[in-house]
Amino acid sequence: MILVYNIGMNSHNFKKILVLVFVAIILLSIYLNRAYSHIYGVLGAANLKPVEVGETYLINNMNGTATTTLVYAALGDSLTAGVGTDKYSEMLPYLLAEKLTGYDKQVLLNNYSVPGAGTADVVTDYLPLAIKDNPDVVTLLIGVNDIHNKVSAKEFAKNYETILSRLKKETKAVVYVINIPFIGSEELMLPPYQSIFDLRTREFNGIITDLADKYAVQYIDLYAPTVDLFKRDGDHYSKDLFHPSVTGYKLWADIIYDHINQ
User: pTM value?
Assistant: First the structure.
């Protein structure tokens, strides 16, 4: 009789545990859904407008008369297109182009950066244009949208390799690949999404590192020196807490130029 009673109690307790687990799963699902919706709610409420940019800029150093022209092609997405700033002169490639000018050198910036673009878009739409420019310098900063659009690591690697392979074979440019920075403050990305995005960013950056080595292009680590800062809110962010402000872009430009100027 005692044995039967104990079995009955254990069975009852097990059913209670199952109910509690089921309720916990439901509550967790609701939280995850709302935390995910929060990200896009904040981005939508910020309503950032793309900067009015053109495709070509000629940047001169006002201290002298340029006798040479450096052709610079910038490939990227909204992080290169300057979303989060108010003027084209505040976007990342323009800031870099200003740093690349000299007393006798001007920079012709051909800007092929489009908000929302991923590696597949670069391959099909923008890479041919950059190659046609016969650039001296190319910067490539792409991958954030691949992560958020859940592009597989395999597909990302395939597209990224196509970009590097064609740039190396079809241009004489010095190619600088910039790894994917962490973006998304803790106020925007509630747990566990900040950690998930960080994990995917590091996974994709591992692919970029390997391909940069394979194709012997210049690799610039933007992730490591900025990840801790960009996990927090601050004046480095624009109002959507995702795209950098002009302060954030200037910080990135300084880091990138320090690598170029080594």
Answer: 0.91
Q: For 97-119, how does the pLDDT look when each residue is reduced to its tens digit (9 = 90+)?
A: 999 998 889 999 999 999 999 99
Instruction: Give which of 96, 140, 139 is closest to 250, Cα–Cα.
Output: 96
3-state secondary structure (DSSP) of residue 22: helix
Cα–Cα distance between 243 and 189 in angstroms, integer? Answer: 13
- CATH second-level architecture of 50-260? 3-Layer(aba) Sandwich (3.40)
3-state secondary structure 102-117: ECCEEEEEEEEECCCC
Q: Where do the domains of the chain lie?
A: 1-47, 50-260
Which pairing describes strands 56-59 and 105-113: parallel, antiparallel, or unpaired?
Answer: antiparallel
Token pair 């807490």 in the structure block, residue:
241
Q: How far apart are CA 236 and CA 247, in angstroms?
A: 5
